[in-house]
Amino acid sequence: MILIPDDIRQRLLANGAAERETDHVPVVKLFDPTGAATWLITEMMPDERDILFGLCDLGFGCPELGYVSLAELESVKGPLGLGIERDLHFAARFSLSVYAEAAQIAGRVTEAERVLAQAATALRTRNPELPPEKAGPTRR
Predict the structure, then answer these.
(1) What confidence tens digit (pLDDT) does each residue in 66-92 have?
(2) Nearest Cα to Cα of residue 108 among 43, 42, 38
(3) What does residue 6 show for φ and ψ, rounded to 5 degrees?
(4) How many CA atoms lie within 13 A of 79 on its CB side?
(5) DSSP code of 19?
(6) Distance from chain centroid for Cα 58
(7) What is the largest CA-CA distance in the chain?
(8) pTM here?
(9) How far apart are CA 122 and CA 131, in angstroms?
């Protein structure tokens, strides 16, 4: 499977070229089909097309925002010889900050609506001038 097809690559590059402080909606979800590792990726660095940014969860209970090498993800082979895969059905409903807050609450990347709503409320309470609302259409 191609992890980052051209249409997704273009969206990631556009996000990577945007202002640093932008709270993007995740564009793609990658995961290890034989383990707990999950990545919600929002950006690809325009000058370093191997470097992705997003919410990284290696399955140890401490997800964090950070950078990951696309080449490294593509080279991973699990115990059954399976590589990292792209979730073909993932559609982000919130910005990355909400997913990161929810991951801190749950101890892992989650798509549970209740936890995401709790995270959005917590962020809205802490930062009322920047309310993390449900995501609208993604930038193309």
Answers:
(1) 999 999 999 999 888 899 999 999 999
(2) 38
(3) -55, -40
(4) 2
(5) -
(6) 13
(7) 48
(8) 0.87
(9) 10
